Amino acid sequence: MIKRIAVTAKKSHGGRVRRLSPDLGSIDFTSSESTERQIYRLLRKAIMSGAFGPGAAMTTRSIAEVLGVSPSPVRDALKRLEADEAIEGRQKSAYFIRLLSPEDYWDILNIRLQLEGYAVRTAAQLISDSEVGVIEDINRQYSAAAANIPETLRLNFLFHFRIYRLCQSQRLINLIENLWTRIGPTMHYHTIGYDTNQVAENHSRLIEALRQRKPKAAQRALERDLTDAAKAITPRLPRGQDSGQIIPFPHSALDD
Fold first, then answer.
1. What is the average per-residue pLDDT within 103-123?
2. CA 95 – CA 52 distance, rounded (Å)
3. Sign of the CA dihedral 207, 210, 216, 219?
4. Which residues in 121-180 belong to E strands, given as ranges?
5. What is the pLDDT of residue 21?
6. At which of 97, 114, 149 does a domain end?
7. Residues 122 and 165 both lie in one domain
8. What is the dihedral of CA 84, 39, 145, 149, to 10 degrees?
9. How many structural domains is the chain composed of?
10. Is residue 93 located within the same domain as residue 108?
11. pLDDT band at 66 (very low <50, low <70, confident <90, very high)
């Protein structure tokens, strides 16, 4: 059963509108995994994959209603996400997706380049021909979904993590996921006037490096993809009153 949750987004004139996020998934009440843990996992994935945009609100009641659970495990899951710095509580029962400044984004990106770069280098050494085919298919779907922004966000997330999981290190994946809970919502800014063909081309360079089992080439292709996105996203992020200087070009491990 498809589960959707109503989220609140601020309109430019100060009013509010109701909208639906992409599918959240559903709770398996027969699972040994706790309900709170399942809710946390579903919301975390939705945030990472861009299902919620920057500043979007989530309420305990709306999530509980759509998932068919009591408010208590939802409240606990939201508190965990707040501890992850993915959301922040501003009202009694409402949480909002945290906003990033340009400085925050570049800081996180520098860390992502190291962690995700290591993941793709490792993936290039372990990937099979059949897995290359799966990743190519995801990229073809991405290109075909150019007019469907929610779908391109979902497929971009799927593309990256299909590759990263080939590193066979759950600890590394957990670290990368923690960073994506911060940057996932900002991908909405990347969809403003962007060229899906350019993103698909960056993905194709990464796929070709993986096909040829070239770790450094794979990392360079990933760096181009991530920095191109950053250059499109950061000018649209809000600046804090005490913003420091933005680092124009993140440091590359390949420069050493």
1. 98
2. 12
3. positive
4. none
5. 43
6. 97
7. yes
8. -60
9. 2
10. no
11. confident
CB atoms within 10 A of CB 226: 19
Report yes or no on whether pTM surpasses 0.90. no
User: Across-strand partners of 20?
Assistant: 6
Give the Å distances, CA to CA, from 49 to 106, 128, 155, 216, 230: 19, 25, 8, 26, 16
Per-residue pLDDT tens over the stretch 185-217: 999 998 876 778 899 999 999 999 999 999 999
189: its two tokens: 């800014």
> 91-95: which pairs have CB atoms within 8 A and are 24 or more residues apart?
93/59, 93/60, 93/61, 94/8, 94/57, 94/58, 94/59, 94/60, 95/57, 95/58, 95/59
3-state secondary structure 109-121: HHHHHHHHHHHHH
Sequence length of the chain is 256
Q: Which DSSP symbol is given to 145?
A: T
- Compute the radius of gyration of the chain from its Cα atoms: 18
| Secondary structure (DSSP) of 48-103 | HTTSS-TT-EEEHHHHHHHHT--HHHHHHHHHHHHHTTSEEE-SSSEEEEPP--HH
Which domain CATH number covers 75?
A: 1.10.10.10
Three-state DSSP state, 214? coil
238 and 113 in a single domain? The answer is yes
- Let me know if residue 1 belongs to a domain: no
Domain boundary among 53, 68, 97: 97
CATH of the domain at 182: 1.20.120.530
Q: How far is residue 210's CA from residue 154's CA, in Å, rounded to a whole number?
A: 22
User: Residue 37's domain spans which residues?
Assistant: 6-97
